[in-house]
Automatic annotation (TrEMBL):
Record EC number: 4.2.1.93
Organism in which the protein naturally occurs: Urochloa decumbens
Lineage: Eukaryota, Viridiplantae, Streptophyta, Embryophyta, Tracheophyta
Broad enzyme group: lyase
Domain spans labelled YjeF C-terminal: 90-358
PROSITE patterns: YJEF_C_3 (PS51383)
Protein's name in the database: ATP-dependent (S)-NAD(P)H-hydrate dehydratase
Length: 363
């Protein structure tokens, strides 16, 4: 995906607003409105289960698959206080939040994903994220990209729905999508160049409990320097991560590394299951697509269990835990087979087996 710099034409002309609807004459706006509509849940889906989204790679999954399993064991596994880091019982999380397959459900109820990204130079990242979402279990996966990228991404897989509607410089477009996703309580997973965008415009995610940031070591360093005005301190890593989440305003951050460390400003959890020593590019895209789906499932799982709000586990945290574990297991299997030649597509092919090993599908 191209770096989100430059100015997108003023497609979002706020001439009139009424009950969340907007009117404008810009052709670019009309194309982007198609994008926004695709992120919204279908009418039968109740508001509490409206689906997550991602910027940089920007995802919007929705899921309406209830589970009758109580969430008590998840809560017990992840109860924590202060800034102590607790190892997540990640397999238990995956088993709890993954919805059972049900013949009565229709297309879209297990998740609809929208990936915003992709230009002439970068077509792999949005593809990896979108196809990973399908491999995890989402029903539909859309990619919104520039015209130059569309044909290339379409050629990768007929499973993806590709929309060539973005302008070459679309930072303003993505910024507005994030604002509208926030207004609609759509969880937003921000990765890649989306992190560059929000680092320079923190207002896009400040105070948004539905935002998930997934920075790597360099992206995390820039966030810490921007928000906390200091360097990364490994000796107080948990406290610093917690403070970073709090300063931004309750977002969930997954700091990727040897162990993925996750905080929402209240708790700190890590997933340290060993994955692969092969660090090929594209694994972060797999993670983003997986987290988007699992966050959707986790949100619906929590909302479908009638528990007091104060006792509920943050579904953003659960989605991060599940996505992290699945990627690590798939990477381990791929490396076992391909060793040094392991690439991202090899890992994607093991997502299904990895999930099946943890949570077998019922026939």
């Amino acid at each position: 995906m191209s770096q989100p710099t430059g100015a997108c034409p003023h497609a979002w002309r706020h001439q009139q607003q009424h009950r969340g609807r907007m009117w404008a004459t810009s052709r670019a706006f009309r194309r982007q409105l198609v994008l926004l509509r695709s992120l919204l849940p279908s009418p039968p889906t109740p508001p509490p289960y409206s689906f997550p989204s991602v910027a940089g790679r920007f995802f919007a999954p929705s899921c309406s698959s209830p589970s009758s399993t109580p969430s008590g064991s998840i809560r017990a596994s992840h109860a924590m206080a202060g800034s102590a880091v607790y190892e997540a019982d990640a397999e238990a999380v995956v088993r709890r939040i993954t919805p059972p397959l049900d013949r009565s459900r229709h297309k879209g109820q297990a998740g609809k994903i929208a990936v915003i990204g992709g230009c002439r130079e970068y077509t792999g990242a949005p593809y990896f994220a979108a196809i990973s979402a399908l491999k995890v279990g989402a029903d539909l996966s859309h990619v919104f990209c520039t015209k130059d990228a569309a044909t290339v991404i379409k050629s990768y897989s007929p499973e993806l729905i590709v929309h060539p509607i973005l302008e070459e410089s679309y930072s303003d477009c993505v910024s507005n999508i994030m604002k509208h996703a926030r207004q609609a309580n759509i969880p937003t997973v921000v990765d890649g160049d989306g992190l560059f965008l929000i680092t320079n415009n923190l207002g896009l995610v400040e105070g948004n409990p539905f935002a998930i940031l997934t920075p790597n070591v360099y992206e995390y360093k820039r966030l810490v320097q921007k928000v906390l005005n200091c360097d990364v301190n490994e000796e107080t890593a948990a406290e610093q991560l917690t403070l970073l989440c709090q300063k931004i305003g309750g977002v969930t951050i997954m700091r990727k590394g040897k162990a993925d460390v996750i905080s929402d400003g209240k708790t700190v959890t890590q997933v340290s299951t060993f994955g692969s020593p092969r660090r090929c590019g594209g694994q972060g895209d797999i993670l983003s697509g997986s987290v988007a789906v699992f966050t959707s499932w986790a949100r619906h799982f929590i909302m479908s269990n009638e528990e007091p709000k104060e006792k509920r586990v943050n579904p953003m945290t659960l989605g991060c835990i599940a996505g992290s574990l699945l990627l690590r297991k798939a990477a381990s299997l791929a490396f076992e087979k391909s060793k040094r030649s392991t690439v991202t597509t090899d890992i994607i092919e093991f997502l299904g087996k990895s999930l099946e090993d943890i949570c077998p599908a019922e026939h």
